[in-house]
UniProtKB/TrEMBL annotation:
UniProt cross-references to Pfam families, sorted A to Z: GDPD
Every GP-PDE domain range: 64-333
InterPro entries referenced in this protein's UniProt entry, alphabetically: GP_PDE_dom, PLC-like_Pdiesterase_TIM-brl
Origin superkingdom: Bacteria
Name under which the protein is recorded: Glycerophosphodiester phosphodiesterase family protein
SUPFAM superfamilies, sorted: PLC-like phosphodiesterases (SSF51695)
């Protein structure tokens, strides 16, 4: 038996399909990055991770791995989170440098990554149990080796190079920084906010603060004008944008932020990549791509790494080797 659809229903079905086609087409056009196109001749924003840093293979790395013990053979004589490293990154073309922040026993804002001193330095114990004067006497290049401890090519080169945040800002007065609070403690956020509150408004506008949710929230409570990011901030922004981004609207939770994202997240974002970047930029939010290696974030540090970027990417790039990457992403004139 053959079923026939009444003419009035055929007409309704046709109209419904036409409406769906128009709506779908409208959504595509409104969110098509292809039609938006990339920013022509625009170089990506370069975020120098800890200045110019020694690199290492992330394969097999765990939360307890001493990464100074597994570095690649050094190509540069620089140590992360030091003034020589930061200067070199900016001279190579960095737009902003990320530095790690910890509060010392005497309330100073030390620039150092690890929770303890044993991996990279000739010191021992938690950073927060030492005064800044004690930290400054250490050799921050002491523990680096590329051959399982046979040689330590950077040993002796890092004595006295562990700076404070105010020293970094004073030495590089015209530069932009991202400050990463390493302990998720509101007291650390308050200590950083106390320093940031002394900066002129124009300098404060160049600062980004990141870290654990509670530490960053402590900074934002006192200085809501500071660009900030944390796991909670990123989650809120992306969930809200997933719900409303199809309209072209950027939710308030995404305004004045920094979004560090693995490149493969893009497939879930309305308007990815170019339209998404343009929308976020209009909301004063910076999108920075990181490489994803297992459970870890990694920098774009070699020419081969750049193949993971979307074509003509004009957002941000997270890198440990600005000296390598800047020449590769700078448009020729």
């Amino acid at each position: 038996m053959v079923l026939t659809v009444p003419r009035r229903w055929r007409r309704r079905i046709t109209i419904t399909l036409a409406v769906l086609l128009v709506v779908t087409g409208g959504l595509y056009l409104r969110n098509s990055s292809t039609l938006a196109g990339p920013s022509k001749g625009e170089r990506p924003f370069l975020l120098a991770h800890r200045g110019i840093a020694q690199t290492f293979d992330l394969a097999g790395v765990t939360a307890d791995t001493c990464t100074a013990r597994i570095i690649h053979p050094p190509q540069v004589p620089l140590l992360e989170n030091t003034l020589p490293s930061l200067r070199a990154a900016f001279e190579a073309g960095a737009d902003q440098a990320e530095i790690d922040v910890q509060v010392t026993r005497d309330g100073q804002l030390a620039v150092f990554h690890d929770a303890t001193l044993d991996c990279r330095t000739d010191g021992h114990g938690p950073v927060g149990e030492h005064t800044q004067d004690e930290l400054r006497k250490l050799d921050v290049g002491y523990g680096y080796t590329a051959d399982n401890g046979t040689t330590f090519p950077l040993r002796g080169t890092g004595v006295g190079l562990l700076p404070t945040v105010p020293e970094v800002f004073a030495a590089l007065p015209d530069r932009a920084f991202k400050l990463d609070l390493k302990r998720d403690d509101p007291a650390d956020g308050d200590a950083l906010a106390t320093f940031l509150a002394t900066l002129p408004a124009a300098r404060l506008a160049t600062v980004t603060v990141t870290g654990g949710d509670t530490a960053v929230a402590a900074v934002v409570r006192r200085l809501p004008q500071v660009r900030a990011t944390s796991r909670a901030i990123i989650k809120d922004c992306l969930l809200d944008y997933a719900a409303t981004g199809w309209t072209g609207r950027v939710p308030s939770s995404c305004h004045h932020r920094e979004l560090p994202l693995p490149a493969h997240y893009g497939q879930w974002l309305w308007g990815w990549p170019h339209l998404f970047v343009a929308r976020m930029r209009a909301a004063d939010t910076r999108v920075v791509l990181v490489r994803s290696v297992g459970d870890w974030s990694a920098g774009f540090d070699t020419q081969a790494d750049l193949t993971d970027l979307p074509d003509n990417w004009s957002g941000g790039i997270w890198t440990n080797r600005t000296d390598v990457i800047a020449p590769l992403v700078t448009p020729s004139r």
